[in-house]
From TrEMBL:
<comment type="similarity">
    <text>Belongs to the ABC transporter superfamily. Ycf16 family.</text>
</comment>
<dbReference type="Pfam" id="PF00005">
    <property type="entry name" value="ABC_tran"/>
</dbReference>
<comment type="function">
    <text>Involved in beta-(1--&gt;2)glucan export. Transmembrane domains (TMD) form a pore in the inner membrane and the ATP-binding domain (NBD) is responsible for energy generation.</text>
</comment>
<dbReference type="InterPro" id="IPR010230">
    <property type="entry name" value="FeS-cluster_ATPase_SufC"/>
</dbReference>
<keyword id="KW-0067">ATP-binding</keyword>
<keyword id="KW-0547">Nucleotide-binding</keyword>
<dbReference type="InterPro" id="IPR003439">
    <property type="entry name" value="ABC_transporter-like_ATP-bd"/>
</dbReference>
<dbReference type="InterPro" id="IPR003593">
    <property type="entry name" value="AAA+_ATPase"/>
</dbReference>
<protein>
    <submittedName>
        <fullName>Fe-S cluster assembly ATPase SufC</fullName>
    </submittedName>
</protein>
<dbReference type="InterPro" id="IPR027417">
    <property type="entry name" value="P-loop_NTPase"/>
</dbReference>
<feature type="domain" description="ABC transporter">
    <location>
        <begin position="5"/>
        <end position="250"/>
    </location>
</feature>
Amino acid sequence: MTALLEIKGLHAEIAGGRKIIQGLDLTVNKGEIHAIMGPNGAGKSTLSYVLAGKPGYEITAGEVYLNGEDLLAMSADERAAKGVFLAFQYPMEIPGVATLTFLRAAFNAQRKARGEAELSSPDLIKRVREIAKTLNIDADMLKRPLNVGFSGGEKKRNETLQMALLQPSLCVLDETDSGLDIDALKVVANGVNALRSAERGMIVITHYQRLLDYIVPDIVHVFAAGRIVRTGGKDLARELEATGYAQYQSEAA
């Protein structure tokens, strides 16, 4: 199989020198979905931020490659143009910017960065509305300021819409199930599953097994104290649901 993402010996810390990721090795091949599970404070969200290029995190050792290119040498916008997408646990609200305006700007900025022609507004609107229907997003929601006053389910459906529009090669979902009721979870999971592709990889970060009933992973990793301490198949998620993370925290200490 062809490697999409390769992480080798990664160490990262935040301002003040607090070490968060401590020797992470991970390979995500094209077509694979990897679930990362672990307790609070293990470094799961930090990994997502480091991959996306969020400021405030210092890489002290290690390498990260996306399709063979040095990801750590790229700015956040360059990573996005190369196909990295981060779905946040708590999506930001942007007052004064309509959702459709934001989608148009993001889509065409990425096309421009790749040297591709921008899509005309009518064609883009048509594409957005087609995707929106599959996610139970109505036209009024597209006119509202981005995420302002949205419910948890609306915010997560909106991020899934962004993914479906941008067609990233690496989707990183940081606790997408947070704040979702079962109906919203099913809608979001169906949207994510529609993006499964032989050329795309996904990292699904979650505390709970329930999300993985709907987005079924190929590989499950247990993350503790900033590194992977166990890897298995989808059944590992059910085991974790039954036994918890205490044994892995002690092993990683």
